Protein 1
Amino acid sequence: MGLFDRLGRVVRANLNDLVSKAEDPEKVLEQAVIDMQEDLVQLRQAVARSIAEQKRSEQQYNQNQSEANKWEQRAKLALSKGDETLAREALTRKKSFAETAAVLKQQLEQQTSTVDQLKRNLVALESKISEAKTKKNMLQARAKAAKANEQLQSTLSNIGTSSAMSAFERMEQKVLEQEAKSQAVGELAGNGLEEQFRMLEGGSDVDDELALLKAQVQGEAKALPGPVTDKALPQSTSSQSSTSSNSVVDAELEDLRRQIDNL
């Protein structure tokens, strides 16, 4: 195989590939219908010309046949008058017109057959064009649906890696982080508040225990001989419950020391 043959085949292959890729089904179908309609117009024109030629041949045939009949009548008239020479001349004219009419008759028969065939082809082409238009509309609708579905599938396949989707994922992660920070801060603040309340509750327990001890000591002091003054036991008031737990504990220890010394 020669180099030019191989090169020509490669060029044709590339051109065919480019043409195939450039073909749009909707446009190609539309153009195909337009081409068929142009063919229909040309066929109609051909049928019209053939019919016109048929009519013209028919007129010529009728004229020549009429002339042949007319000269035949004249030959009969001349022969009836006894003029054989004139009758012979009339028959010669009649023969000429009759031969021309015979040729025109054959031509007319051929033209009639051709016109009939063209008419059948015209009807078949019109039917095909009508069918092609219906099919074209259906195929164009299917092509549009296929194109729309392809675009939708392409969008769905690319949406996971698109910048917009990545932005949504980043913002979602940031919101989760902010919620976690807020929850942690809330828990820390709640723990501090609970600790303060526990301290207050602990202080109240110490005050209650101190009051109980004072009552016990006073009861023991009444049971023992010798006066026990109320000065040895400091009075607990509602204002003392607001002091810190360390001061209450120190005061309790001091009272216990005094009570022991008085025993």
Note: The mean pLDDT is 76.
Protein 2
Amino acid sequence: MEINLCPILERRQLGIKVYNFPLEALGAQGVTFIQSLFLKDVSIKPHSDICGFTKLKRLLLHDVEISGDLPGLLKNCFSLEELELIACTGVPELYVPQQLDKLRYLQITRTHVHKIDFHVTGLTHFEYKGEMTYIALHGCSKLEKVVLSSASCSFLKDNNALVHAFTAIPSISAVKELHLYSDMKAHPPVWTSQVPVQVTGPMYTFMFLRHLTCEIRIFTEEPNHHDGILQFAHYLGAAPLLEILQLHFMYCTEMGERWNGEATGEEVSSCIGGLQHLKTVYMSGFRCYPPQILLLCGILKKGTSVERVTIQPMVTVKSLLSLNLWIPEWHIRKWARCTSQRFGKAIDVLPVPTGL
């Protein structure tokens, strides 16, 4: 069953009351038949006494106003395999103490919750996008992929998906593929404001992590001196079996043409542990800013098994076209040649398309 009505905001502007979808009607005949339910731009009042959802495998709620007890309803969804909450309201917390052993896919996006607490032994895919909050996924030892995003369009709020993933969500440590999307601000200093001084590295180990992707937007007026990404070096030691590392940078600055290639990786390599299994390194938005060079050289120094290194000067993160103007490609290629000889590793520089 799919119910997709006129957007809630548009209905309000037209003075039309948001439609209240009667969940009780699905179990009114005393027969549990519904297996997939998609609701968009409606309101619902769930509670634990509603019947008719014991066979439900797929529940997708998009732009839904929730005024009841959603966790209470989920307690009765014994067969649930896929759950999506996208841009929903009225969910202060998602605490479901009952085991949802068949749940494989869980996505919570742009839905403000203070607590996410599930018992999901079979979960393989988890996505969360929003303000970083308390997240506990009990018993999820089969995680294949986790996506965490705290990226925000607001310039007034710092986000810390990187810090949160490595220090505050131990239940995702069994994941094999991790994708992180986060912002960094230059003022106040991003790491001293977001990480306790005594914390210099991860709080737990990602023993099964093979593929790590990070997309980082950096807001600074001094890209040559903003060294927030260097804290990332401490976290690499938390993934001793890491094989693929992808880093996508976007420096939101009007001084993108200012860069300096004079830097080594000695200062960073001492902070990096492991990386004996690392084979592939890819960096986009690479402009030879000293912090970028320090991080990459530190990785090359410790990554003895690295087979392929690719750097792309272009910003691939969705951004303004102006951020890809005046790229010093020839200087980046010169640095890559020198660094390649120094570490004995081939470094490919992807060409910048003509016309930029």
Note: The mean pLDDT is 85.
Protein 3
Amino acid sequence: MLSPCLLELLRDYWFEARPARWLFPGKPKINPVSSRQLGRAFNSTKHLVGITRPATLHTLRHSFATHLLDANVDVRVIKVLLGHAKLSTTARYRHVATKTIRDTPSLFEALKKLNVQTRKYRRG
């Protein structure tokens, strides 16, 4: 999934920076940016914008999966997007998909409606 807007920004970056080997070179530039460098940049940005709650790059991955679940994206699609080998790994994200849980219809309400309809049928 690559947003057309993000693709445009990446193209602009590439046009300006003209990286030789990697789109995001690390230090030294012959290597790609490392996960440690990304973590430092994330923490620095978090501090810069005033986010004080604990968060890591994995928090972003977790949020991505949770938001997709909240948007009713099929868990099998999310599995592929996250690169999980097993569906059970992706299913762990379901425990925090609050919108999904909140929007799940109550079986009690369904029984209550059925009971009301049954009573109307019997009276009719």
Note: The chain has a mean pLDDT of 85.
